[in-house]
# Entry
Amino acid sequence: DAKTTQPPSMDCAEGRAANLPCNHSTISGNEYVYWYRQIHSQGPQYIIHGLKNNETNEMASLIITEDRKSSTLILPHATLRDTAVYYCIVFSDNQGGKLIFGQGTELSVKP
Amino acid sequence: KAGVTQTPRYLIKTRGQQVTLSCSPISGHRSVSWYQQTPGQGLQFLFEYFSETQRNKGNFPGRFSGRQFSNSRSEMNVSTLELGDSALYLCASSKIQGGSYEQYFGPGTRLTVT
# Structure
């Protein structure tokens, strides 16, 4: 079973920041938080990951709370092309290539 | 740099037949994982191959099998197809660097079993 809890859906206005929350209260010390997204009918796309520090790349920022029990993915200026299902996944590299996907958050970016 | 490619993209088979799907990973990636996606069950892990060895396996029946070749290309096979095997089959490749395990997914193969 997935170790994360996400809201099933969220809306965001185009051009505004989209903040997607994720709870992972049972995360272990060696587990990372990964975010992927899946645009309709395409394969999932890696976005970002982190262990305990906040991370930023060209796509998004990841904010992890100090106790690591929750995190937030931030898309700073959402566009219509960011409409997708966003998955928050807890992962440790001793799992091999096994990602356990939950139901994710369906983000709708509206004009 | 070319992404993950999967062939064929679409496939229609009949119950009882078998099917083989192919995945070519990103150059330099040695790990290939396979997933099944259905509306009811979502994305589920099938298995992972690394250096031609199955390293991890999900909770699927033995009708689902796979292999990896020395060039890291991978195939998965489903025998005795059932209607419930209709799904999008995705493969993902990963380079594997310490602490960094990003997976890059292909576009998937849409299998329909009639």
About this structure: The mean pLDDT of chain A is 94. The radius of gyration of chain A is 13 Å. The beta strands of chain A are 9-13, 18-23, 32-38, 45-50, 55-56, 61-64, 70-75, 84-91, 105-110. Chain A touches chain B through 23 residues (CB under 8 Å).
